[in-house]
Amino acid sequence: MARIDDLVALRSILDLRRTARGLGAAHANVAIRACERTLRDAVGPSVAKRVAARVLEISPSMLDRLVAEGAVTTVVSPGVLRARVELRSLIDMAEALEREHVRGPERGAVVRAARRLRPPDARPVAVWEEVARLPRCNVPRDELRAQFLATTPSERLEEGIFHAEQMSHVWAAPRVAT
Question: pTM of the predicted model, to two decimals?
Answer without folding.
Answer: 0.66
